[in-house]
Amino acid sequence: MRTNGVSFTAAVCWLSFWLGAVLSGAAWLYARFQQVPFIEGLANGLMNVTSPDSTVALLLALGLMLLVIGVIFVPLFYLTVAVQGLIRVLTLKPIRI
Q: Where are the bilayer-spanning segments (predicted)?
């Protein structure tokens, strides 16, 4: 019998992605409500980006880290599921009629 549930690994990958998106949005909202700049130094390159508020920087760093983990591991998880299914199909015994 097939199960239609989501595996624990897939759930962790998706939760990481969405939690990262929520934290990044929360950092932007917090900066907006506190009337401080969200990020500075983007014109000088990505490595020079700073945030004047430590709370914004912390929320943004955690959010982007979780977002990147989700972006990397969600496709990898589904790729391994597809490869396992392909191997399972290719190793089936042929049906004799």
A: 55-79
Please report how the helices 8-34 and 54-90 are oriented relative to each other, as an axis angle in degrees rounded to 10: 160
Contacts of 2 (CB under 8 A, 6+ apart): none
Beta bridge partners of 50: 40
Enumerate the H helices of 1-97 as residue ranges: 8-34, 54-90
pLDDT tens-digit series, residues 8-23: 877 888 888 899 999 9
Please state whether the predicted TM-score (pTM) of the whole model is above 0.85: no
